Structure formats: C-alpha cells, structure tokens
C-alpha cells in the first residue's frame, strides 16, 4: 500500500487488512468509511447499546465519528471532532474505540465482518453560503416576529392595499398598526416612497396610529433623511439571519431527535 | 452487474457508470455511498450553495440523504426520509436531485468527478437501547430538577448524612426541605427504610418541614403502605428518561449547529 494514496478501497477484506487500513488512515488523517456488521457501545453521560447489524462507520480527518444505520438521516451514534482513536484487533473482531476527553465519552464500534472499507484524502475548500429571498424574509418575520421587534404580532402578509401588496402587516406591543416593507438589498429612495404610499393608502381607513417600517440589510445614507421626513422607520435585518430562522424551522424534527432520542 | 449484488464498489468510475449504479441502487432501495468532487445547491425554506469540493454523499434505502464534508460531525446538507430522486446525466456532470414534497425542498448534488461509489444492501435489525445508572439519574435530576417536580431546587447531592449519603437534597417550591433517594430498579422495603433513616437523621437538625421522596421506575406494591405510614412519598422516574436528559445535554453543540448554522 503506497504511503499516501488518494483513495484506498477494499471489498470483503480480512479483519487484519481492515486493521491496517484503519490505523494508517487515522495516522495520516484521512477520511475513513467502513461498512459491515458491527455492534456499538456508548458510555459517557449515559449508556447505550446497539446490537449487531450492518452499518456505515465514518471517521473524518478531524477525528469526528458517525455511525449510520441503513435508514434515517440521523446518526445512531457519534463523537465530535477531536476524538482519540484506539484500534483493538481480537480473534474474530476489530474494535474501533473513540474517546472524547471532556466530557469523557466512549464509543466502541466492534466489527465482526467488513463488506467495504475506504480511506480517502478529500480536498474540500468550497465555501458554504446561505441565502434568503425577499419572500423568505417575510416568512422569517412571520415565524419569528421578534426579528422585527419585541412584541410585534403579524396579522397578515402580502395584504392587498392599492397600489400593491403590503409585505407584512401587524400590531406592535402598544397596539399601533405596523406596515412592513421588506428589501433583501440596501434600501434606496424607491423603497422609502413605496412604503410611504402604502401608509398613505391605509391611513385614511385606519382607526388607530400607524407605523411604517422599512426592513432591509441596510439603507442608503442619502435616503435616511427622506425616511425620517416621511415619519417612517428603518430596521436592519440580514437575509442570512432569516435563512437561518427558516432552516431552524425545517430542522425541528432533527433537533427533536437529537434532544429526545439519542 | 448482477441484479441484486450485496455489494457494488467502483473506484474512479466514468460518470456513465456512476449514473447506472445510482439508478439501480435507487430502484432497488440500496444504500449508496458516493465520494467525489461535487457542488451542492439547496432550495426550500431558504437557499444555500456549497461550492465544489470533495465530499461524501450518502443516500439511504428510505430515501434520506446526507452530504458530509471531510471535517465536522454535522452533515452540510441533508434531506429526511421519503425524498424522491432524479438523476440527470449531463456532458461532464451527474446531478442527483432529491425532492422533498412537504415542505417543498430540493437538494441537488452535482458531481463532476467520482472517486468511489458503493451500493450496499445492508441488513440491520439490531436493537438500540439506552441505559442510565443510579448516578446518571442523580445527575439528570440536578440538570433538570423538574424530573422530580416543578419548582424543586437541588442544593447538594451525595450529601453525607449519617448513616450514609443522601442522593439528592433540595428545597421544594413552598420552601420545604426535600430528601431524595434514587433507585434504578423497582423500589422495595429496603429503599423505603433507607430513606426513612435519612429523614430521621436530618429531622433533628432541620429548622423547617422535611419531605422524603423515593424516586424509582416503580415501587413494590407491598411496601407502598409502609412508605405512606412513614410519611414518605414516591415519584416514578424512568432511567431511560434520565439517559435522554443527559444525552440532550451532551448534544448541546449539535443542536446549536442545527439551529444556527445550517
């Protein structure tokens, strides 16, 4: 086996071969994928036992560990990065023991048979970026109204108000009506005038005090005074933050799993 | 390629071979592992882009999907079970498109090069069980005192009180002292008498009302009356529930990730 192969794959290997690949991969900080029949024991803040079955073990170059069953998107066992590994070869098994120091936690994956083992040198510098559309920003405010301000209660969104549609419409903590106009980029003159038109259209029919809030990641300096003159307000909101709120919501089930079932 | 291989592995395959393996694996509900250079696009409640890099794609037999980078124990993208897949072969890429219907979410993994692809028929019926020791149960009550009762505030644990050590010691919402004795199995006569001894030892020194609570998954019927005669209480608590509380705590970082960063 060359010292720094980009890729090593063995199918139906002997356990002695498995041990060799695992030890080299750990030493060289490669990513390891091992699939086969294993039992998994966890001890730390609690204890768990996973009886034998065929699963996928992944050990990443940073020492994080995942054990995946053939169904479900959640790992059944895992360790965060920084785990220290010990490999024990016994008569008919190989034990991969991952130790986390603080808090002290142990995951032991004991293979009795390996279908496939792969050690990979993965090169991954690609940037991850999260975006939100204007409509995503509306949705985020509806889901988490405190993004606008504490005590805000949305009543409707995309409400038809000639000359168009109000993005988000609600009531503040003191009972005033709030008309919200959302932009996903720096707000300019047009956004301010648009909000002002909605306010004027609603003012005639509203029975209580009315506030207009322009929501955007930033506002152009030269229109800040126009905004104030028209009696409107500006609230800075990052679309990325909205994207996170929506993703959080999406992950409700995943979070519940991690809280309740593992 | 035989129709129902237990294991298919190709290294440095052509993209046409990759497409063939993926399509067969999806049709036969096998578990797929694909490692190679890919870009990942997500759209749904928000949008994200992961620029090209070498990663591991896992598609499980239930249609769940995970994309793992070579570091970190969290997937960078995922879909829950029940996703529907489309494979698009283009000139120099293969796109695996996972669609979740409700809410509508799309993950597109676009490979430009594949290092290794494996399709596996994994057989996993092993039971997963979570355990907690008596000490784990103490810890769980300290971390989440409402496991005992609402308004309970622990003061100390394993407190020395002749003739031994009180498991958990605290104050209830009305200010009464509470002595807690924990058993991880059905509580019998001995547990009741042990708690009674602690209560008697403390009573002489305590300046306020004292309650004794025996905590266990269940209590033997024939000692229920003894418990009441001695003025003690019983609170049913499942060690498994305690294990979950402790694991939840362990997963704080993981939860935070899923809430905030993806």
Q: In words, what does this structure look like?
A:
Two copies of one chain form a homodimer. With 262 residues, chain A is an alpha+beta fold. Chain A has helices spanning 15-27, 134-143, 189-203, 221-229, 239-250, 252-260; strands at residues 7-11, 31-43, 47-59, 65-68, 77-79, 84-89, 94-100, 105-120, 128-131, 153-161, 164-171, 177-182, 210-216, 233-236. In chain A, the strands form two sheets. In chain A, strands 1, 2, 3, 4, 5, 6, 7 and 8 form an eight-stranded antiparallel beta sheet that branches. A five-stranded mixed beta sheet of chain A has the order 10-11-12-13-14, sandwiched between helices. In chain A, β4 (65-68) and β5 form a beta hairpin. In chain A, α2 (134-143) packs across α5. The radius of gyration of chain A is 28 Å and the shape is elongated. Chain A starts with 6 loop residues before the first strand and ends with a helix. The interface between A and B is large, with 78 and 78 residues.
